[in-house]
Amino acid sequence: MRKLSWLLLLAVTSIWAVSCNSGKTEAPNLDTVVTDGHPAWILQGNVYEVNIRQYTPEGTFAAFSKHLDRLKEMGVQTLWFMPINPISKVDRKGTLGSYYAVSDYTAINPEYGTLDDWKALVKKAH
């Protein structure tokens, strides 16, 4: 029985010792693509979610575009826009409705501006 206890202790200690690492990790090569298909830079990137309706008092693409330089200075690398499509009025709760209750996935919400305004914002952001 005592021999079995020592063997078990030796096995557990060996597994523990093998599973330890040196704690050193290499920085990812930012020019490569990681295995899940995302570019490596996104692992350390700064993503900023944009709510056009609430970002400025005007709530438009044109008003938001004036803030791009400031966001870049803050280190923002990627802009993630909440839905910019028209909001459905069917079964709406409240006066504003949910951004995710889209009535037309091929259109731009006219409250934010036109398709040309959106294209101008995208061009300026790049």
Nutshell version of this structure?
The protein has 5 helices and 2 strands, in the order αβαααβα. It has 126 residues and is mainly alpha-helical.
Provide a descriptive summary of the structure in words:
There is one protein chain. Helix content is 35%, strand content 6%. It has 126 residues and is mainly α. It has a domain at 37-84 and 111-125. It has a two-stranded parallel ribbon with strand order 1-2. The model has no long low-confidence stretch (mean pLDDT 82).
Which descriptors would you attach to this protein?
mainly alpha; two-stranded parallel ribbon
Could you give a short account of the major beta sheet? 2 strands, parallel
Gap from first CA to last CA: 71 Å
Supply the number of helical segments. Answer: 5
What is the total tally of β strands? 2
- Helix percentage range: 25-40%
Order of helices and strands: HEHHHEH
Layout of helices and strands:
Layout: H1 2-19, E1 47-50, H2 52-55, H3 61-65, H4 68-73, E2 78-81, H5 115-125
Parallel strand pairs: 1-2
